[in-house]
Specification:
The complex is a heterodimer. By secondary structure, chain A is mainly alpha-helical. Chain A folds into two domains: 179 residues, Up-down Bundle (Four Helix Bundle (Hemerythrin (Met), subunit A)); 41 residues, no CATH class. In chain A, helix 4 packs antiparallel against helix 9, helix 6 runs parallel beside helix 8 and helix 9 packs antiparallel against helix 11. The longest helix of chain A has 32 residues. Chain A is elongated. The relative contact order of chain A is 0.15. By secondary structure, chain B is mostly helical. Among the domains of chain B are: 67 residues; 33 residues. Chain B is built from five helices and one strand. In chain B, helix 1 packs antiparallel against helix 2. Chain B is flat and about 65 Å long. The C terminus of chain B is likely disordered. Classes of the chains: A mainly alpha, B mainly alpha. Chains A and B meet through strand 1, helix 1, helix 2, helix 3 and helix 11 of A and strand 1, helix 1, helix 2, helix 3 and helix 4 of B.
């Protein structure tokens, strides 16, 4: 193992050595990642096909504009940029762990693996926050001539096109007092939600400033399913990557690889982790950038 | 008992000696990835802010963002995953099957847009339901948060 020699002018196919100069497990990890690329490719292409079949598709900057602790400030793509940065950073720490493994430096491997795990967990927490926000954050949407408060789920979302003022005024007449009370409460906290709900319909309707109210139509139904499905599948990969990284960290600390004489396992786990980063490049591209 | 002691064929792989330059290369790649990501974000926000009515210009900007993403993928695979350091034959066994995705992307997006075209032509409710009517567009150059 680990014989250092010039790679050039070696007869790889004359027998006695691995023709691809790659250890079996590492080669198989590459082929697994190739098959996983097809899985993600198929998911993203189906999303693309549905998106191409619609006349209207929401603009990502209108959907992903919130940041934890920033309230209702309009910061398009800021939070997802942070998530991307975290994942690139954790990729760097992983490749540094692989490098320390090449040198047989047990402490270095353990240090950089720990940082990689922290990065992975940070990414998962960010995603959990984003999902919670999208699933619970309600926005007014025009549905069948009246206004409803919708959040983004797999069956509906409020990301349709903007509705003009006169249509909103008409829709307010048919809207239930509960929703009207919520709309008033968003801008005006002088009365509690319970007090507002008790008011008569006409009075509530008058309290709403139509020009300030941004009502959208219900968005393309497929949006939520694709978003949660694909980012969720990617998140699952991050999660399993964190678990695998934790296992090899324990093995490193126990000196398993030291006794084995090489840190090839770190390389294989590293390949998986970089793949997770690679997939995020395309998830980020398809859902957030374009 | 190891494979050698059992007189079984041993898997022989030759390794490059780890070089100190590697760390430099890793950080250089990190900066490249970061800068590309920032440029992509800038373009994406510009695309959103301009809200160009011209379809071709919008698609061209999106095309640039896609090419930049592919460049990021190249750097991750080639340097972080060390695929660039492997033997050519091994690289090809991975890259050649992936070329199937080129066909998949082209055929499925064309299929999607042809479905849109046909529905707009034959199904009027689809047209009125999802067509972006001019008077419902947000004022130009102004971002309206959905809230």
């Amino acid at each position: 193992m680990a014989t250092t020699a010039t790679v050039h002018q070696t007869k790889w196919w004359s027998g006695g050595k691995s023709p691809f100069n790659v250890e079996y497990g590492k080669l198989m990890m590459w082929y697994f990642l190739m098959s996983d690329t097809f899985t993600f490719g198929a998911l993203l292409v189906s999303y693309g096909a549905i998106r191409f079949s619609q006349n209207y598709w929401p603009n990502p900057g209108d959907i992903f504009y919130t940041f934890p602790g920033a309230g209702e400030a309009n910061l398009p793509l800021a939070f997802v940029s942070l998530m991307t940065f975290i994942l690139i950073m954790s990729s760097v720490t992983m490749v540094l762990a692989v490098y320390e493994g090449h040198r047989g430096n047990k402490k270095g491997v353990a240090k950089w693996l720990t940082w990689t795990i922290i990065g992975g967990l940070a990414f998962l927490f960010c995603q959990a926050w984003e999902w919670t926000h999208l699933l619970t954050g309600e926005h007014p949407a025009l549905v069948n001539g009246h206004i409803q408060m919708l959040s983004q789920t797999i069956s509906h979302n409020p990301w349709g096109k903007l509705v003009e003022g006169s249509a909103v005024t008409d829709a307010l007449k048919n809207t239930s007092p509960d929703v009207l009370a919520k709309l008033v409460y968003e801008h005006d906290h002088t009365m509690s939600l319970a007090q507002l709900t008790a008011l008569p319909h006409d009075q509530l309707a008058k309290m709403i400033n139509v020009s300030e109210l941004h009502v959208h139509e219900a968005g393309p139904i497929a949006f939520g399913g694709f978003f949660y499905g694909i980012t969720g599948f990617h998140g699952f990969h991050v999660f399993s990557g964190v678990v695998i990284n934790s296992i090899v960290l324990v093995m490193t600390n126990k000196g398993v690889f030291e006794r084995r004489g090489h840190y090839l396992m770190i390389e294989k786990v590293g390949l998986y982790w970089h793949f997770v980063d690679l997939v995020w490049v395309f998830v980020f591209l398809c859902f957030y950038l374009i | 008992m190891s494979a050698e002691q059992q007189n079984l064929p041993v898997e022989v792989t030759l390794h490059h000696a780890p070089s100190v330059n590697m760390v430099k290369r890793i950080w250089k790649t990190f900066w490249i990835l970061l800068i590309i990501t920032i440029v992509e974000l800038g373009l994406s926000l510009l695309l959103h802010k301009l809200d160009l009515p011209d379809n071709t210009k919008r698609l061209a900007m999106k095309g640039v963002i896609i090419i930049l993403s592919l460049a990021k993928a190249y750097f991750i695979v080639s340097i972080f995953m060390h695929l660039g350091d492997e033997l050519n034959q091994m690289i090809l066994t991975i890259l050649i099957p992936l070329m199937l995705l080129v066909w998949v992307i082209i055929s499925f997006t064309i299929d999607g847009s042809s479905y849109k075209y046909m529905r707009n032509r034959y199904d009027r409710t689809f047209n009125t339901k999802t067509m972006n009517l001019p008077q419902t567009k947000a004022p130009k150059g102004k971002t309206v948060p959905l809230k």
